[in-house]
Amino acid sequence: MGAMTSERTSRAEVRFRVRRRRVVRRVVGATVGSLILGTGVPAATAARDAAQRPGDRQLMAVGLGDSALTNQNCGCADLLADYGLLAGRRTGSDVEVRNEAKAGSTSDDLRKGMGDPGLLGELTQANVVVIFTGANDFFPAFGTVSGGGSVEKNYAPVALTVRRNVESVVAEVRKHNSRARIVVCGYWNDFKDGSVARHQYSAKQRTAADAATKYTNGALQKAADSAGVHYVSTRKLFHAERDVTPMLASDGDHLSAAGHRKIAQALVDLLHPADHPNVDPAPAAGPRPAQPEPVPSAPLPPLLPGTNRPH
Question: With contact defined as beta carbons under 8 Å apart, do 105 and 66 qualify?
Fold first, then answer.
């Protein structure tokens, strides 16, 4: 990504700039440095004045996790940028997006990185925090299971680790910002899916990927339920389609522009319902028992050569 690009829509402009590892996007009424663009008004003054105008507010969304949140192998706007655009349209608010996702990261990487001062500074200001992590944790176990190892023996401990790490991340967010809306997203597939998977994986290998995804999503849903935060099933979202292939990039693993937009729309519908777009939904009503999907237990053949860590 270059130092600055832009994408225009009918009513908003997204400006991209990279600050260290942080991708900053401001949607509608964008600011750079300490001045509101084109006005010469200090940002602090503008923010104070905006807070005094009913119905005119600024929102910040922060993304945490792996490359499921990025535009890897797509070259399109990622789902967090799409969320900013769509949320801005629905609410009429300025939406600032901070994407902290790191390709290849695990839930343990995310948990350990929560002490970063810059990240914590962003989280204290966030209205929305989107968490997308856990698939990469299963990569080593996927290889073992594909070689004939037990599904339960290899996947269950990883799922428990993912659950505990995500619960820790949510607790850390709440420690610094009790008002932020937190959304944990499940995966459509931990590994390749659609036509690419059908061509590159055997039927048993697809079953192995499916089992890993169910364990991952079960862990993520349990973490979300126990913390009383929102959970979005992208698996249900995508598999409601006749074929998930159009939702995926050419590698069959990451998202296409259509996939990013579909998840972004689901986030907007959840957090800014059309009948009350400027009213944040009430927190989930306490811990709820998760109901993970059943997983297969049959041993699987070796993984095809050249499979890379997906997210």
Answer: yes
Question: CB 120: neighbour CB atoms within 10 A?
Answer: 15
Helix and strand numbers (H, E) in the chain are 10, 10
Instruction: Name the phi and psi angles at 19, rounded to 5.
Output: -115, 110
Return the SS3 of 148.
coil
Phi, psi of 240 (to 5 degrees): -75, -20
Helix (H) or strand (E) holding 206: helix 203-227
- Cα–Cα dist 60/80, whole Å: 11
pLDDT in tens, 1-33: 333 333 222 222 232 222 333 455 555 433 222
pLDDT tens-digit map of 188-209: 999 999 999 999 998 888 889 9
82 is written with which tokens? 């799409």
- Supply 168's token pair: 């820790």
Nearest Cα to Cα of residue 219 among 142, 143, 155? 155
| Residues contacting 137, CB < 8 A, separation 6+ | 106, 107, 108, 158, 161, 162, 216
Give the dihedral sign, CA 46/52/58/64. Answer: positive
Which stretches of 218-307 are assigned E, i.e. beta strand? 230-232
Backbone angles phi, psi at 218, to 5 degrees: -60, -40
pTM: 0.77
The C-alpha atoms of residue 122 and residue 114 are separated, in whole angstroms, by 11
Q: Which two tokens stand for residue 78?
A: 């990622």
| 227/181 Cα distance (integer angstroms) | 12
- Here the tokens at position 19 are 């600050």
Cβ(146)–Cβ(303) below 8 Å: yes
For residue 308, pLDDT beyond 70: no
